[in-house]
Structures are given as structure tokens and as C-alpha cells.
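Open question from group meeting: does this chain pack into something compact, or does most of it stay loose? Before anyone orders reagents, we agreed to write out a predicted structure and look at it together. Recording both the input and the output here so the notebook holds the full record.
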Amino acid sequence: MLILVTDRRPFGEQLAAALFQSGIFLFRTPTETARFLCEEKDCGGVLIDGTECLASAELLCRDLRMRYPQIPIALLLQNGQIPSCEIDRILREKHFDEILEDALDFCRRDMGWREEAMTSFSLSIGPDPSATLYMGYPLRLSPCEHALLRCLFYRAPRLTSADDLLTLCYPTDPPSVAALSATVASINRKAAVLDPRPLITNVYGKGYCLRAGILD
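C-alpha cells returned:
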């Protein structure tokens, strides 16, 4: 799980949406709330945008490095900026497609992210909706349903709150909680054709998770 720290909202939304299209789930946050978010969420890496205020980015880098020395950290900088803090990867401000490719490389090489199917005995979810199998049979999902199910598989066996699912699976223009609930119900209806037990369970007031035993 990536945490993207940027105070440039349009840029952050664009990068979050592009990374999501490549299968990466992330939390996006401004610098002022980044420490709190890193404490609250389980993250596999942090990408900090230091193009507008290098001093604030360096302060955050040092703090995160001290608290979480095992988490890889990347810093996005303008050409000519040289950080004075310990960093795992430096990305440079340039054409958006090049920034995206560098961010993907950070996720692949430093965070260990892999573009491959997540598989258990009864469920297999590939990076494309058409590559989803349940009980050995194709499970026809919409892109939104596929993203939500893949996110729950990625985070299993942890519970994921409705608010977090809306953030992770809808990087721009998230729907209502009611719409999310309807999407979960749709997945369960489709899965019930192959197994009457709910594929996704809802722990009231806490969130959603895959049914116990799915990962066995």
C-alpha cells in the first residue's frame, strides 16, 4: 500500500488515478496529515512530493525514517534540488508520463509490488477483470467490482472500512457509502451462483473483508 504525500491537489489526483489504473492502491494526503496517516495505515512505501517545499519534505522524511526505518521512501524534486536527508529513491519533476513511470519503478523495485494474479484455492484475481476465477469458474465483474474485490484480497485478512475502500478504489470522485454497499451486494450475488456463502462479509460498524477460509 502506497502513501502519496503532496500539497498539489490536481497533481496528486492525477497521479493517484494513473497509479490506480496500474493496479496500485494508495492513500493520498497533504504534508500536514502525513505523519498521522502513516501511523494509522499499514503502508509499504511513501512517495513525498517535495517540489513546492523541500524543507517540509525533508523534515517528514527524517521523521518517517526514524519511526519506520524499514519502509522505503521516495522523494519527488525539481531539477537542481538536492536533499540533505536519507532517501531510497529520488524522482525528478518532468513530463507526467515520466513521473508516472518512475513512480511505478519505485513501487516495483523498492516496495516489491508485482503485477500478477492474487490467488488462493478458491479465488484468483488478475490485474484485469476478465481474469477473475471463483471456485474454478469465471466471475464476471465490472471494473469497479474487480477493483474492490482485488483490494480486499490484497488487504486480507484485515478488515477495511467503507471510508478506506472509497479512498483506495475510487481515487477520484468516490461514490456514497450506499453505492459502495450496493457494489459489494452485486459481487456477492454474482458469486452466490457458484457458492451460496457470501464472498465478502460486512462486520457492522468496522468494515468489509473476504469470507473466512477464502485464503486457505
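Observations to bring back to the group:
The chain is about 40% helix and 20% strand.
The chain has two domains: 2-109, 118-210.
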